[in-house]
Amino acid sequence: MSSLTSAVYHPTVARLTYRALLGRRRSLILLALPVLLLIIAVAVRALGGADDDAATEILGGFALASMVPLIGVIAGTGAIAPEIDDGSIVYLLSKPLSRRTIVLTKLLVSISVTIAFTTLPILLAGMILNGNGERIASAFTVAAAVASVAYSAIFLLLGTVSRNAVVFGLIYALVWEALFGSLVSGARALSVQQWSLSLAERVAADGADITSEVSLPTGLTLLAVATILGTWYAGERLRSLKAAAEG
């Protein structure tokens, strides 16, 4: 069990990654959207009272469609892209660590940070908006958790393939997920947002107005495929960097 754990998670790599992600400037950026979500929730509740439709619109249209992928961009790319850009990844690759351990450790750190900065604010906002009526807050909290895993893998991969990972990540999050994933019917089925909504639809009560473009089995399958492929290819990219460093 100990050898299995060490092959998946390396404490020193994790500590360095947490330090990079939770520095003062990046922490302020990570906190900005959750704080805005809570401010919106308080304002809507104060002005209109408890409202299931408002809760669905805010948690689905803002939190899941925009906040979760944007935080995923910051955590996923930030877990590895800066080290590749400044060349410090070469030092890490020179250590007796497998590329799989490095990638999996950084993925776990990214997932934990993304979940921490999305699920709790979404749950609190949902409780403020309608007291978890129709299990809407619970549904979007679960959806945010599973989406965080897929986004972390996707953006970690992006951090290994491009020096402009943050820019491309923001374009993906704002254009594909927030815009096309919400408005364009053909693109919805290829959106992490919609895949996670399939789980939210199942968790929410029958009266909740939460729907997804894909079925639950399809959504869970696509989330798993995106996570596994993203993690695997990030490891392959790291292997090529290691080979280049050794050469």
Automatic annotation (TrEMBL):
Superkingdom, natural source: Bacteria
Keywords: Membrane, Transmembrane, Transmembrane helix
One Pfam short name: ABC2_membrane_2
Membrane-crossing residue ranges in chain numbering: 28-47, 59-81, 102-124, 136-158, 165-187, 214-234
Protein name as it appears in the record: ABC transporter permease subunit
